Amino acid sequence: MIGSFVMTSGSHEVLELFIERYLDQDTLTVAVAGEVDIDSAWQLDGALQDGVARPGVSVVVADLAGVPFLDSTGIRVLLAGHHRAEECGTSLVVTNVQPVVRRVLEVMAVFTLLTTEHGRVSRDDRPQKAG
């Protein structure tokens, strides 16, 4: 099971970010669990940058099912990964976005960009039912 643990660093607690990678033919899934913020975003950045530049990979899927929180640093990392993927001739698509993270991405007007792969809409980009 993927989880996070608390490390004490000075006067604040740092939650560890867990990242697992799964390769299936030409698709690399980067499954993330934990809060993506200024203390942990560098880990996600490294995983995405490595993934999009990896030979033989045409799609990198950032699976955020285990991410309950994403700050502006995390958004920057996702956008940088998306840009790098385009430079490398690959795609980066974000999936399994939790409601709070989805709302942040929508407010920042990047949700559709990050959840669409070369014109194909991911499951997460379908309209949500109100209620």
Automatic annotation (TrEMBL):
Transmembrane segments: none
UniProt xrefs under PROSITE patterns: STAS
Domain STAS: 17-110
Recorded GO MF terms: anti-sigma factor antagonist activity
Gene3D superfamilies for this protein: STAS domain
Family note: Belongs to the anti-sigma-factor antagonist family.
Name by which UniProt lists this protein: Anti-sigma factor antagonist
Provenance organism: Asanoa hainanensis
Source lineage: Bacteria, Bacillati, Actinomycetota, Actinomycetes, Micromonosporales
